[in-house]
Amino acid sequence: TDTTNITATAATPTPNATTTAASSAPLQELSDDSIQAVEKAMAAKAQDLGLTSAQFKAVDPCYYDQELEWRRDVLGANSV
Predict the structure, then answer these.
(1) pLDDT confidence of residue 66
(2) Which of 23, 55, 61, 67 makes the best surface tag, with the fewest CB within 10 Å?
(3) Phi then psi for 50, rounded to 5 degrees?
(4) Which segments of the chain have a pLDDT < 50?
(5) Which residues contact 13 (CB under 8 A, 6 or more apart)?
(6) Is the dihedral of CA 76, 77, 79, 80 positive or negative?
(7) d(CA 41, CA 29)
(8) Tens of pLDDT along 19-34?
(9) pLDDT of residue 62
(10) What confidence score (pLDDT) does residue 32 get?
(11) Cα dist from 70 to 56, 62, 66, 73, 77, whole Å
(12) What is the pLDDT of residue 63?
């Protein structure tokens, strides 16, 4: 099955925490409202865990099949 991946990156020095939210449709087939709802839920969970600098970005299922440098560029991260 396809999954929609929500990648969490910390705004401070360690941008490597990731998490995945399952979905039955590829990212491009999901509505903006669905994506925003998942991002909001993940942000709330991160805040509950004390991860106040976490940021979330929805990515296509192929994200984890790509090279680290490609992923860094997609996220706009400073490093891999």
Answers:
(1) 95
(2) 67
(3) 85, 15
(4) 1-3, 10-24
(5) none
(6) negative
(7) 20
(8) 444 444 566 677 888 8
(9) 92
(10) 82
(11) 17, 11, 6, 5, 10
(12) 93
Distance (Å) of CA 65 to CA 5, 8, 28, 59, 61: 12, 17, 17, 12, 8
Query: Which residue carries 């409202």 as its tokens?
Result: 33
**SS3 state at 29:** helix
What single letter denotes the amino acid at residue 22?
A
- Cβ pair 15, 7 in contact under 8 A: no
Q: Which residue has the tokens 């509950």?
A: 48
Query: Measured between alpha carbons, how far is residue 69 from residues 30, 41, 49, 52, 65 in Å?
Result: 26, 28, 28, 26, 12
